[in-house]
Design a protein that fits this description.
12% helix; mainly beta; single chain; four-stranded antiparallel beta sheet; 3 helices
Length: 176
Amino acid sequence: MIFKRTKNLYSFDDHVYCTVNFENVIYELTKDSAIAKYRLAMTPDLLMDKKFKTTDEAMEYLSSNPFFHGFYTELRDYSLFGISVPKQGVMQFIYNHNTKETHLIPAKSINPLFSFLSTHLFRYGDNTIVTPVNSSMILSLKKTIQFQDDDFAFNDVALDTLTNESNPVLFYYEMQ
């Protein structure tokens, strides 16, 4: 079986991090070593202890056990992780460096702007992430967004001129 993540190497500020397929550890690379930065405790056994004879056996294991999806963003005070959870898809977690607490980012929220948080998050500043959102996705939620309170309104975005062919809209989320 061949399995690969779309991304195994991450760079934030002057630090470089890497992951290994089927392993729940994120390493920080230095000039002469790799140091385990995060260990994501999700499964009772590490996958490397498993022996698969067929691809079907491996896929059966993945369909019933959570694993690190390879989505990771390091900020100054927070880290964001994507964990693939059976039957629920990719769940997002945020780790607070100061309090050492991990919180689930809810997949559903009363604020429709949170629905744009995806696995395509990029660091933008110390504690800010940005995600590109396809204009057709915004158009599908246009009525919902327009009838929300002012707290949920778009700033500097003309929804009336937005079309399915428009460029993606960038959403910035500042972590506080």
